[in-house]
Here is the input.
Amino acid sequence: MSSDRKLIIFDMDGVLVDVVSSWVWVHQHFGVNNDESLEAYLRGEIDDMEFMRRDIALWRKQDPYLSKGYIVEVLKEVPLMKGCRECLETLKEKGHLTAVVSGGLRPLVEHIGEQYFDWIMVNDVEEGLTGEGILEVPLNDKGRPFEEVIKKARVSERDTVAVGNSFIDVPMLEQAGIGIAFNPNDEEVCSAADVVIKEKDLRKILEHI
Ligand SMILES: [Mg+2]
Here is the structure.
């Protein structure tokens, strides 16, 4: 029997916030783009650490004295997804557990509200902006952090709900009891999902939990 108490695991970028990527949001702020390193990453030529290193280098090239505090401020401008906080509040009121598993940047979780989440696994830039990233979620293996979270939460896979918007989220959606493709970016995520929600209002997921 499945339990009434569910663990809902959210991707962040494109789901909790209305931007495709928190890293790209910062790139746009500095007027740079990471197409080259993204392609190298997707071809398997560089790993997650090198990918983050190259992203941070792009920013520091624009501002050699850049601080992490500045990045935090830039991320405070990111628009939340419609219905985001209402959805998270409702889940808490109903006694569900929540987590965010995202390759996006940690300050953005603080902007949404860390208090809404029981577990947070995200990437970040080092304090002092040394040029190195902090890796918790490899983009090509979201299944691993997903498993770590459900282990910590002590719930079974069938009592989990995963919410994601892109092919990167497919491992989470496939493992979860219910996989929700929300605001989908590609066909892969839709095919892996039990439920597809195209309307950009996060409260729409509540009817499926
Ligand atoms: Mg996403």
Q: What stands out?
A: The mean pLDDT is 96. Residues 11, 13-15, 165-166 surround magnesium ion (CB under 6 Å).
